Amino acid sequence: MFFSFKEDLLHYLWKYQLFRTPDLKTKSGKSLHILRQGMLQTNAGPDFIQAKIQIDQIILAGTIEVHVQEGEWIQHKHHLDASYNTVVLHVVWESKNNYTYLENQQPIEVLTLQDKVDERLLARYATLMNTITEVPCAKLYKPIHPSLLHCFLQELCVERLERKVITIYRLLETTNNDWNQVVFMQLARYMGSSINNETLQQLAYSIPMQIIHKNFDQPSIIEAILFGQSGLLRAYHTDEYPTTLYREYQYQKRLHSLEVMNASSWKYARLRPASFPNIRIAQLAALVSSGKWSIELLVSIDSYSAFKQLFEVPIHSYWCSHYDFEKERGTPFEPSIGEASIITLYINFFVPLLFAYGKETDNEEICERAFVLLEQVPFEKNKITAAFPFLTVERRCAADSQALIELRTNYCATSRCLDCAIGNEILKGK
Predict the structure, then answer these.
(1) pTM for the model
(2) Is the pLDDT reported for residue 201 higher than 90?
(3) Rounded Cα distance, 230 and 334, in Å
(4) CA 172 to CA 174: how far, in whole Å?
């Protein structure tokens, strides 16, 4: 049986007491009864707090420290750290010594688990760790209780929203808590897909929202500013439309001391013309020119249909026949934002933004509404969500697909089987 034996496996074994507990003996031969295994904590200090054990006739309350090898106590310099003097038991996989010594020179008992864990559990763990597939547990999976699976998927959906909230909070820090600037940046990011998302967000960051607000009634100025800042406008164009944009941008650039981006940042490879940066910037300009993307208006939205109405804005007619400046399309094109893109923005931009605002303002109703809104759009069918055909789970809506995406990207892909409810059931042999 070959696998990388990590401390987190021992944490898991101790937390769930997945070893033979009758007639336990410490390394020195004393009887051991675990009255309370304690709670795993991730802060500095011993691994498990509020534990209680009985060694022979003596009851001890304190903390538990867990290591693969007993010698790691000294390697980690715990023997020099007074905060570890609360440890009443040192739990290890294997040890040569009967005792571990605290900073105050007091000896504590050592419990070894090497001969106390079911070999079948270790074999299942080795299989999970050594299987190189998108979902390591696919071949080991056995149906688990529907209510357990349902609760776990709900937790995953919350986790995914919470992670996106962290990103939004970081943006708030960089914008001096300007929610409308963050709205602009996040809207731009998720309009850029995975190819130009960072560059589109950088474009939005380079344009203060005060300038956009000032020109709501003049969409041509907003177009000029966005295209000018992107670096895609040139001093000499033959078409009237980009020529006019360039002239206007030169004025706005001097007026607001704007610094143009490097045009080489934009990527066109492997993109269909409908997703070219020029089209996305034209769409973004049309959206923000409508004046409907303030945080106050967004948090009042209570349905997908209301969100979809925000996209009913005209895109400049130039883009009906062009996919780049002075590059005409062979056939007429409708440059409006399609249904699939709107749903993507709804799931990845709008709902997390709503959830973050609800948390920031301590408004539980807004947070709850974010979850309800995820249930109003269909389940996302993609390579990631298709990786779980063996799971007997409803695939009703985006809340379900977001849970599976979180499971695949932040559990399966990083071998977090010990933190996964499905992995837990497999390891326990249930």
Answers:
(1) 0.85
(2) yes
(3) 23
(4) 5
Count CB neighbours of 169 within 10 A. 14
What is the distance between the alpha carbons of residues 320 and 309, in angstroms, rounded to a whole number?
21
**Contact call for residues 30 and 109 (beta carbons, < 8 A):** yes
Q: Percentage of the chain with pLDDT > 90?
A: 79
Identify the DSSP state of 131. Answer: -
Those residues whose C-beta lies under 8 Å from the C-beta of residue 282, and which sit 6 or more positions away, are 223, 227, 315, 316, 318, 319, 335
Q: How many whole angstroms separate alpha carbon 127 and alpha carbon 142?
A: 15
| Secondary structure class of 282 (helix, strand, coil) | helix
Contact 68, 10 (CB under 8 A): yes
The encoded tokens of residue 6 equal 């990590």
Residue 49, H or E segment: strand 48-55
Tally the residues of the chain: 430
d(C-alpha 376, C-alpha 246), whole Å? 42
380-409 mean pLDDT: 93
pLDDT tier, 243 (very low <50, low <70, confident <90, very high otherwise):
very high
Which pLDDT band holds residue 157 (cuts at 50, 70, 90)?
very high
Q: Is residue 329 pLDDT above 90, yes or no?
A: no
430 vs 140: CA distance, rounded Å: 11
CA distance 291 to 310: 10
Q: Label residue 132 by pLDDT band (50, 70, 90).
A: confident
Residue 378 DSSP symbol: B
CA 240 to chain centre: 44
Residue 69: helix, strand or coil by DSSP?
Answer: strand
Matching residue, tokens 């895109």 = 315
Question: 395: part of which helix (H) or strand (E)?
Answer: none
Q: What are phi and psi of 54, to 5 degrees?
A: -125, 120
Query: How many CB atoms within 10 Å of residue 9?
Result: 24
Contact 249, 324 (CB under 8 A): no
Residue 424 and residue 178 in contact, taking contact as beta carbons nearer than 8 Å = no
Q: Give the model's confidence band at 4: pLDDT under 50 very low, under 70 low, under 90 confident, else very high.
A: low
Indicate the residue type of 156: L
